[in-house]
Amino acid sequence: MRIEFADLGLAGVVIAEYDPVDDAVRIDRRAYECVRFRLGADEASRFARYALAHEFFHRAHPAATEAQAHAHARAIGGIDGATFERAVRP
After folding, report:
1. Where are the domains of the chain?
2. pLDDT tens digits, residue range 24-79?
3. CATH architecture of the domain with residue range 2-88
4. 83 to each of 56, 62, 77, how far by Cα in Å?
5. Do 1 and 23 meet the contact criterion of CB atoms below 8 Å apart?
6. Is 18 left (phi over 0), alpha (psi -120 to 50) or beta?
7. Is the pTM of this model over 0.90?
């Protein structure tokens, strides 16, 4: 599995994705930088960990809902994804 920062090109709609064809997790570079700018480097690291936990859950459980993946990432990271979404989305 690859992990990479990429321009997902969806203007903040998708901040991370799992690509089963390439077996890669991509975190939107602009979203990461936005969190870093607005919340700081520590929160940007937490954002990346949250995104990875969320997407790893999708990889392990392809039929899982977004709510299930969010709950898993929240349990792993101890923070709600809404914190990051508020920082990324206007």
Report:
1. 2-88
2. 999 999 889 988 998 899 989 988 999 999 999 989 998 999 899 989 998 987 77
3. 2-Layer Sandwich (3.30)
4. 20, 25, 12
5. yes
6. beta
7. no
- Quickly state the pLDDT bin for 12 (edges 50, 70, 90): low
* Nearest-angstrom CA–CA distance, 80 and 23: 25
Q: Which residue has the tokens 């299930």?
A: 68
Edge-to-edge, what's the strand order for the sheet holding 24-28? Answer: 2-6, 24-28, 16-19
| CB-count burial class (<10 Å; 0-12, 13-18, 19+) for 69 | buried
Structure-block tokens of residue 80: 């709600």
What letter does residue 2 receive in the DSSP assignment? E
